[in-house]
Structures are given as structure tokens and as C-alpha cells.
Amino acid sequence: MKLSMNSTLTLTVMMGVMVAMGAESEIPPRITLQSEAGAGPLTFVIDGQAALIYQHGPSVDLPHFYPIRSPSGQLLTVQQIEPYPHHRSLWFADAVKLNGGRRVSFYDALYTRVNTNDPASPFRDRIRHLDHTVKSVSGDQLIVEMRLLWEMDLSTPVLDESRQVRVVALPNREYFLDLTFTLNASHGDVEFVSDWVHYAWPFIRVHPQFSVDHGGLITRSTGAINQEATNGQPARWIDYSNTVNGQTEGLAVFSHPQNPAPHKWLTRDYGTFGPRRPDARSGVPFTLHRNDSLTQRVGILVHHGDVASGQVADRFERYAAGNL
Questions:
Q1: DSSP state of 85
Q2: Which residues partner with 192 through β-bridges?
Q3: 3-class SS at 157?
Q4: Residue 317, SS3?
């Protein structure tokens, strides 16, 4: 069946196998994936609500998730905001050198348009989404595998990336993302040259309405709160929550136990936070040799309530044990 570029495919991947001869019905999935034919965003629909959208395409400097909506449908993140318009809601990027060449900051890819006066001009350096495959679906879970290419000077490949995105529908419109990012130095030695702050491994940029600056709360797994007591500190997880329009909701990031530890976190009261690499590889140049790989795995919990009523600590333990 041929589809026009403007048509929309709804990939309603059913759990769907008859369990035995004479089975009466199939169990419909709680998660569906909607995508435009060709290059375009992927929308994850949970219980009929567009919970989050994966943005990619020729006009996108680097793929990212936006919007990310709370269980009640409010915006938890912001896609672009001054004075840091290169922030991208939920994104993964770094600054590197290929085979001893020039420094390339994919973190700042927004500023690399060939013609800065033309919003349709291509990016000289960018992360490009190549393709994706729905690998499996059950009633509450959908797994998508993605291939991306980090490229400089319009066409020179720097790093190959694979991402696994596992989305789990939880009760009452809560949901969970299990994200694994793997970079492979397929094209030569790659030196990572970012400082301690300016790389997303990944980063979240919280919507101002959920930020500490507007009454929100950052909570570290140790119980410490807000930027002064959490920034630059080790943690197993960080939660960001607030009460907005009468609804208390939040978003927590879990560092999977398979990540090298301990590692620190960057937190900002205005709304940015995310895990760092271990000290030996954070803000310190290091080389990923040709054909070697580097992986980071995180969980993203979108929950009702604050850090306590949202059961963030208990859910981290379930994640760490492979039960979430």
C-alpha cells in the first residue's frame, strides 16, 4: 500500500496473538505509535492521550522528545527557551573531535546553520535520525529501536548511535521511559572534549511552570533538595516536581545500575538536570577508539504527586531490579 508523504500511519501494534485455538479476543495495547510517512515526528499515545513526541527531520538540529506531558496533560518540559535556545526538552548530545580534527559541538548544533539568516538552511553539524523499528509490543509496553548518525560539515560521519526506547504505560496515565543510548566510533578515533556542564547524557529541560523558580522542588535520592544541595553531587536518581493548576506531578530521572558509578548530576533551579559521566570521563578529555562503544542507560518516570506520593524511591528499586 502506497502512502503520500502527508498521510499519517498509526502503528497500532497489537499485543495480539491468539493464545490458543478458540481464543475469544485479543487484548488491545495501551500504547500506540503514530508516525508520518517519511521524515517526521513519532507520537507515543498512551490510553488515548498523546503523552510524548519524538522530534526529528531535516529541520531539526538534533532529535529530542517534546512535548513530554504529565498524567493530567500538562507540559512537563520546554522545547526551546531563552537564554539557552539550544536546550531541547529531553536530549542527548556532546562535543567531540574526530581523528584529531576540529572540535564539533553537537550540543550546540542549533548554531551551525550554513546560512544563519535562512531558517530553512541546513545545519553544518547535526545529529540525524536514520530509521526506527518497532521491536515488540505488549498490552502495557512498546519497544522501539532507532539508528542515528552524528555528522559534521554536512556529510562527514563522526559517530553512529543506536537508541532503544522502551515505553511502559503505568496506571492512572503515569508512564515510564527506559532509554539506552549507545555511541560507536565506527569512523575513527573520537575524542570527547566537553567540559563538565555542556553535554547532555541526557539532559531534561523542565518547563518553567514546574521549575524551582516557580515553586517546584528538586529532590536527590539522598533526600537533599534543590540546586544548592544537589548540583555536582552523586545520586541514584533526581526528581523534579511541582503543583501546577491544582495538580501535583513530576518527572524523575533514574541512573541505571549498569552505568559506571558513582557519578555526579547537574541540576539547575531554573529547570535543567541530568546525570554526568564518572569523574574520570566528565569534563576531562578522553578518547573512544575506533570501533569501541560507549553506553548510557536512564529511566524517566512521569508521575502523579510529589517525590513521596509518587513512590519515586520504590520505583527506582523496581527499575534497578528489572521489574519496571
A1: T
A2: 96, 286
A3: strand
A4: helix
CA angle 52, 150, 153 (to 5 degrees): 130
Three-state DSSP at 93 gives strand
pLDDT per position as a tens digit, 1-10: 333 333 333 4
Each residue's pLDDT tens digit, 128-149: 999 999 999 988 999 999 999 9
Bridge partners for 121 per DSSP: none
Domain boundaries, the chain: 26-320
Structure-derived torsion over alpha carbons of residues 110, 115, 120, 123, reported in degrees to the nearest 10: -40
Neighbouring C-alpha atoms within 13 Å toward the C-beta of 291: 0
Contacts of 137 (CB under 8 A, 6+ apart): 13, 14, 15, 29, 31, 143
CATH number of 26-320: 2.70.98
Peptide bond into 119 cis (omega under 30): no
Q: Measured in Å, how far apart are the chain's first and last C-alpha atoms? A: 37
How far apart (Å, rounded) are the C-alpha atoms in residues 314 and 301?
12
What are the pLDDT digits (tens) for 8-37? Answer: 334 333 333 333 333 334 678 899 999 876
Give me the residues paired with residue 293 across strands. 184
How, if at all, do strands 237-244 and 247-255 pair?
antiparallel
Say what the pTM is. 0.90
CA–CA distance, 314 with 140 (Å, rounded to integer): 20
Q: On the CB side of 38, how many CA atoms lie within 13 Å of its CA?
A: 7
Q: Record the cell numbers describing residue 198, joined without a space.
A: 555542556
Tell which residue, 305, 296, 173, has the closest CA to residue 240.
305
